[in-house]
Amino acid sequence: MVQAEPPGRPAPGKTPPRPSLPVPDVTEEGEGVTESMGRRSVELAGFYHGKLETVPSVPIRSLADFALWYTPGIAAVSRAIEAAPDRSFDLTGRWNTIAIVTDGSRVLGLGNVGPEASLPVMEGKALLFRYLGGVNAVPIPLRIDSPAELIETVERIAPGFGGINLEDIASPKCFEVLETLQARLPIPVWHDDQLGTAASTVAGLLNGLELTGRTIGQIRTVLLGAGAANLVTARLLVALGHDPHAISLVDQRGILNAERDDMDELMLRNPWKYRLALQTDGGGRSGALADALAGADVLLAASRPDPHAISADAIRSMADAPIVFALANPVPEIWPEVARRAGAAVVATGRSDFPNQVNNSLIFPGVFRGILDARARSINDEIVLAAARELAARAHDRGLTAEHLLPTMEELEVFPHVAAAVATAAVDRGVARVTRSRAEFLAIAKERMARPARLIEAIGRSGLIAPMPPASPGRSLSKP
Amino acid sequence: MTKEIPPVPAPMTATDAPNMPIHLRAARPQDVPALVSLLLRLKRLNEEFDPLLKVRPDAEAQATALLTQDLADPKALVLAAEGVGADRDRVVGLVRAHLRERLFYTPENEGVILDIYLLPLYRRRGVGEYLLRETVQALKARGAGIVTAEFPAHNEIATRFYGKRGFRAVTLVQAKSL
Known about the structure:
The structure holds 2 protein chains of 2 kinds. By secondary structure, chain A is an alpha/beta fold. Chain A has helices spanning 26-48, 66-69, 74-83, 88-91, 115-133, 147-157, 173-184, 192-211, 228-239, 263-269, 271-280, 289-293, 312-316, 336-341, 364-373, 381-397, 414-428, 438-462, and strands at 97-102, 136-141, 163-166, 189-191, 221-224, 247-251, 254-255, 298-301, 323-326, 346-349. Chain A has a domain at 213-344: 3-Layer(aba) Sandwich (Rossmann fold). Helices cover 45% and strands 9% of the residues of chain A. By secondary structure, chain B is an alpha+beta fold. Chain B has a single domain (22-164), classed as Aminopeptidase. Chain B has helices at residues 32-49, 59-72, 127-141, 156-164, and strands at residues 22-26, 76-83, 91-101, 109-118, 146-149. A 5-stranded mixed sheet of chain B has the order 1-2-3-4-5, with helices on both faces. Chain B starts with 21 loop residues before the first strand and ends in a 14-residue tail after the last helix. Classes of the chains: A alpha/beta, B alpha+beta.
């Protein structure tokens, strides 16, 4: 749903100019832009042949040094880890290395493209992990269908990693895989489409509530779309004190309540959705989206790209000054300007060209920096909420307005704060292998997150990576 | 020769178990429409387990006829689970069982649990267990020396539910489309 966008790096503290609120004709112009970006991406992919390479992190003065980095010296390091496996976090790169695992079953908006076709996307994600989080991420696309085999495979590769990032796995398979792995592995397991998106949504909502003078215990919320992100958002809202019976979860068939006639099918095929249906019971309502929205304070839409999925009248039927998040990408469920004109006090989307972008990339770099710095054994909803609260607090500190609900991707100084909040939450929950103060975690995160930019700059100066070739329509590039 | 099955006792007294969100009683003719809708939900659930259990378009009429017939049949047991509190008088679950004679084998009187269904909100908290216990008692009171349950082979939830309570597979029914 919400896709990461590589940010530029403007001077800290300088907010780039914001566009006004257009109602763009995305069906034509947007597709054209996407198509030309796609051509350019293919061109560059063929020029650079991949986006990552392995670079040593130790000096190599001569081949003689390999007696230390490799055999015979390294045998003693092996012995030390054999005696105490957690020393692998000290004596190897495990502390800062994660696996990006996918079965290619739901890649971007493309659907099930298979593991090979997911590789360029996973490489891109690894680049973001490196650039924004200072994390070494290894793409691991797997040719696997069954959740059980996927779970088993990740269990078997876990010894080499400090964390696991599940990526682009279809719902509801992703729930079973995440839950099981979180229970079994001694390292944190994350699924961005569930946790990252939900955490940034919750962060935006917390600030939206403050702006409109609401508290979470008193609101009625409608969630449109019952996929990976919204099912977790609903769970987090309840954890924050939202009355479950004031939440209406709406999917293509209407309001999800305990007596809908597909409940038994859900019990078998999607127990996570089933449980939420029981817990919320439609927020006391049944029927269509319009029935859910009447009088509601908040709408969190994470469904499918269709600018007419929510009408202006539906927004007008909500409570005064409602909060509207229309997060489908690339086209929101209602254009922000339309929602505003219909009375919405706060509007957020998944896009960077409108104010208030709800973006999982605001969360995952800080989360991984934090759990790796604390060498956490696991991650749970409380830690996820710590990340969401910190993100909200950062925007708050810079002054909340209806157009500045969340930090933007340009506000890179936010990430180390999210990392420190996450690491501290891991310590507080008793799941950290490393204990430090919050200030220490912040300093560590700042340093580790600043390193990639310095590295990339140094490599750029060295001429070892060819500068980006100019776009050349009509002919393919080849690397010199 | 068919052995006489003891006459059906007086309509079952409503039994409330402490802390149960339901109240179990013998079904009445006026319950039939509600029972039909529950029975159809159960049959559609069965459809999820096996394509050979595809529900017929006329299933509703069949369910109505079947339940009406069962209510008049001394060898049939139909129980209605009502909600409690605000849901009192609302049928939220059903049990349908038959007393059958087993040819060749002993014990000769078998209570067959054909359908058990509860609306999702009334599940867990031991409600299913309570329903089963009451049903088994009612069948035993009518002379059953053995109790069986029929459900789709791939319904693992039911397999686990009955397995935990001492049931095991005795007869297998295998099927093949023609």
